[in-house]
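User: Can you recover a sequence for this backbone? Please restate the input before giving your answer.

Assistant: Of course. Working from this structure:
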């Protein structure tokens, strides 16, 4: 039986921290689904389609042959239903600072309560990405700060483009 893992998140946008989890995760499982999940609590900068395209582009350009075992998808329902419908026995999550822990712990327990067939597996962040979070990146980029080295180059370009468009909208 193939081990299929699903790595859900907002990925608004994908960062080098996410990419680190994806690169390490794909080595552990036969198939990895990077799932752009709709989160009503987090207003998004990029549309779901834009986020999926950015992830796809980064995987294709940076991951080589292993990228062939990664699928990018989106979903707006209950994660555990998606996992079950796609025969995924693993939910993959990344852990940064202690601040991530409580939320991740609650979510893992809630998912476990809903299904004992699906296990949550955590990978500790690579030390370089400890403070890398999409929100901080968006905040810095929105004020013209450089986010180079924290996100893939293609994503940095998309961020610059998006904020330039936003500034144009305000000026019109
Ligand atoms: P963010 O919190 O940056 O908005 P997401 O909601 O997209 O990110 O997070 C998806 C998953 O990726 C979560 O498990 C989150 O803890 C993890 N993650 C996010 N950033 C990093 C990082 N820098 N290192 C490791 N894991 C991360």
């Amino acid at each position: 039986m193939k081990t299929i893992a699903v790595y859900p998140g907002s990925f608004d946008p994908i960062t080098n921290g996410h990419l680190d989890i994806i690169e390490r995760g794909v080595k552990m499982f036969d198939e990895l689904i990077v799932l752009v999940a709709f989160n009503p609590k987090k207003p998004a900068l990029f549309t779901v389609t834009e986020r999926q395209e950015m992830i796809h582009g980064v995987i294709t350009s940076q991951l080589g042959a292993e990228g062939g075992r990664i699928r990018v998808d989106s979903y707006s329902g209950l994660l555990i239903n998606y996992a079950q419908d796609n025969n995924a026995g693993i939910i993959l999550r990344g852990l940064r600072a202690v601040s991530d822990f409580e939320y991740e712990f609650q979510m893992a327990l809630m998912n476990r309560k809903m299904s004992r067939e699906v296990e949550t597996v955590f990978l500790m962040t690579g030390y370089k990405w400890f403070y890398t979070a999409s929100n901080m990146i968006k905040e810095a980029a929105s004020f013209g700060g450089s986010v180079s080295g924290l996100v893939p180059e293609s994503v940095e370009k998309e961020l610059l483009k998006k904020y330039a468009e936003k500034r144009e909208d305000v000026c019109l």
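That completes the design. The chain has one domain: 4-130.
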